[in-house]
Amino acid sequence: MDNEQSQPPVSPEAAGRLESWKEIAGYLKRDVRTLRRWEKNEGLPVHRHMHEKLPTVYAYKSELDAWWNNRRPRLEAQEAKETKEKSKRWLLAGALALAAVAAVTVGLGYWLAQPPPLAFEERDWVLIASFENRTGEPLFDGTLEYALERELSNSRFVNVVPRERIVDTLQLMRKPPDTRVDAALGREICLRDGGIRALLTGRVEKLDTTYVLSAALVNPADGVTVASFSEEAEGQKQVVPALRRLSSQVRHALGENLALIQESNQKLEKVTTPSLRALQLFSQGSLLKEQRQYKAAEEFLREAIAEDPEFTSAHLWLAYALMNQRRPKEEYLPHAERALELSESVTEHERYFIRASYYSFTGQYEKAVAPYEALLLIYPDHRFANGNLASIYQQLGRPQEAVPYYVRHAELRPNDFFTNARAAVGLVIWQNNPAEAKPYFQRALALTSPEIVDQYPVWAAWTQLFPAHEHWYKGEVQEALNEVTRVAETLKSPGTKKRTRWDYGLVVGFFYLDLGKLRAAEESFQHISDTAFRHSLLAYIALARGDMPAVREHMKHVATRKVFGSGDATLFARTGLFAEAERAIAYMEEKNRPEVAIAAVRGELALARGQTAQAIPLLQKGLEVAPNFFFGPSLTAAESLADIWERQGDLPRAIQVLETASQEKKRAFFGGDAYDWMRVQMGLAQLYRKVGREQDAQKIEAELRKLLAYADPDHALLRQLQATEEVAVTQNPE
Q1: Domain-ending residue, one of 55, 84, 113
Q2: Can you give the pTM of this predicted structure?
Q3: pLDDT, tens digit, for every residue of 13-48?
Q4: Structural domains of the chain, count
Q5: Which alpha helices (H) appear in 255-311, and where do they start and end?
Q6: Domain that holds residue 193
Q7: H-helix or E-strand containing 481?
Q8: According to the model, what pLDDT value does residue 114 have?
Q9: Helix (H) or strand (E) holding 31
């Protein structure tokens, strides 16, 4: 190599900007191909400017001079070696020419067989694996992938797989939740998950004071790298901006419109970016918070705020960590308020989430709805918003509106038992839609393990009993009973934990009660150690036997409780325990139970006191419970209201009320209210017979006999059906 070519033609003091590969190549007196190789392997300081069509490159002379002076000896030696080897290759060129002609066909077949580019579509998922830290600086451990996730999460095109979803799959693999996800494990997680389209791997290296950040986009299906990217940062302060540029390259490679990338980056320029140390502390704290180690998370988050007092998200997560430790409002609210004050300077999805969280912290649930809905309109797959908004609707007594968000949350975490079980139960109970619920039940059932049973016993019991619900609704009572008996075996296992016995006893007992197996229900309820609560359940069994004195005795024990439900208030009223009913209603009001549920039990109390005129509007309002709440109160309200209309001689009106209530069969069994529903059916059959609709009455009674085919002989409805049958035989002897 001659002297002229061995050094840049301009001194290091030269200034200016080179606007293309051609200009950079002319400045360094090398061909573009060599420069591209140097950029990839040697960290040549080339920058990119993003346009709507293709990015353009540029470089600063001063940066090129500094880079060249640092690498000159090694690169000159490398070029000399390559020149020598090139001369040898020319000697072989002639001999290889003929072989090349023969290889054309094979080569063409090879290129045709190459895998197609990654088929990434809008809102598809990309998993970011842990960055390989080759700098030797612990500051970068676990920090860069988290910072890149924050950058990519501002995209409306790309979805970043959240840590919770990764942990779900790690648990299936029997790995700890804090397992480091390297490239190999990341690919396996993508394949096991089944819904992740791309894997992003990365590394960071250091050359003198320059950090080189590189990333590779991998197709998980075959492990092939489909695109590579790199950026440089002069010093630690430039690492986060370099990650933003890297993020832009990834977004563009995945198919996002360049104009949208530029727009979001312009907004991000206004955001105060935390220091790398603050980001590292925050990422550690947020991971601990997600693992419910709130005390440890608190320490890291406080340190993150000490590093950057205006780190908005750190203030918000600290508020959550303190609240989840049940600390006083005086401790966590100031951090929520500080996050709200700083929210004007953060990205739009962070701003909406902060506002919604603040309103939730302060109990202003109605105000929290709007920012959550706005957030989900822009980012429908936000990692927290779906679950949080569903919980808020639940808190507001509007569970039917919560169900779509529970369902979406389950789609975001397909390998999480709880989210899928909750979506399935919500679809059955609050939307009366067992068919749509079935896939979520099947998914939850496949995820059920002994550990899941111990962690979520009541949800595990509901999940395992979904087949019983399907059989019961189809009239396959024997099959339903077999399913309940199978799940009840958990109660007999010596290894079953006390809490699991409690919850399984509760759920299995309700199913036995709905099948009319009263003694089996009693045995199941005996696993509940809370004496007063157990009496509340035994009161329902006594009611199913038609033994009102026994119901009253059980309810006297229930009165010693401090917690009451609408069913307790109704039975207090029906057994003449009026003061206890008032106390139960006051509790419901204190806990902001839905007004319609409170109206239903107030109507029951007024009716029991003989105040029929006051009872009617309250019971009518109580009928509105059915679409939005556990509907036991609506069934009892319908029964009482129909009784009033019947006594007043308005049979058509009474029939209309019960016909409406009878439409709730699909969810009655699964909601533990099948006995109340069957009682409504029996009342409807009696009214049909009174107006001459004998065939309709017989049809209902035939269905009830089928549903109670395995009921205990002392079941009140079964005895009533038998009495009706005996009367029919007496009146129409053969």
Answers
A1: 84
A2: 0.73
A3: 344 788 887 788 778 877 777 777 787 777 788 887
A4: 3
A5: 258-268, 276-290, 294-307
A6: 125-269
A7: helix 477-488
A8: 43
A9: none
